[in-house]
């Protein structure tokens, strides 16, 4: 098993969510970032991506939640 290195993870919100059209960036391993997202937003988010490009941040004009 290889060690997972931390990185920035991008989380988006689905249509109908309070934060639709926005995204959050969280630094950590895949699972640690996911746990932090659950801590902050519970289950009220949509997808986790490994980059802003994969998340479509520029294409869809998402705004970052700081």
Short description:
The chain has 66 residues and is of the alpha+beta class. It has three helices and four strands, in the order ββαβααβ.
Structure commentary:
By secondary structure, the chain is of the alpha+beta class. The chain has one domain (7-64). It has 3 helices and 4 strands; from the N terminus they run E-E-H-E-H-H-E. It has helices at residues 30-41, 52-55, 57-60, and strands spanning 7-12, 22-28, 47-49, 63-64. The chain has a 4-stranded mixed beta sheet. The radius of gyration is 12 Å and the shape is globular. The N and C termini lie far apart (34 Å).
- The number of helical elements comes to 3
Q: Please identify the structural class as seen in this structure.
A: alpha+beta
How much of the sequence lies in strands comes to: 25-35%
Strand order of the largest sheet: 3-1-2-4
Name the shape in a single word.
globular
**Count the strands?**
4
Count up the domains.
1
Largest sheet features: 4 strands, mixed
Distance from first to last alpha carbon: 34 Å
Low-pLDDT stretches are none
* Helix and strand sequence: EEHEHHE
Q: How much is the radius of gyration in Å?
A: 12 Å
Average pLDDT score:
95
In which range does the helix fraction lie?
Answer: 25-40%
């Amino acid at each position: 098993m290889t060690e997972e290195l931390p990185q920035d993870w991008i989380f988006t919100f689905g249509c109908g969510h309070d934060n639709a059209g926005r995204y959050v960036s969280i630094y950590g391993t895949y699972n640690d970032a996911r746990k932090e997202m659950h801590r902050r937003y519970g289950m009220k988010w949509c997808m986790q991506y490994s980059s802003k490009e994969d998340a479509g941040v520029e294409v869809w004009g998402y705004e970052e939640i700081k």
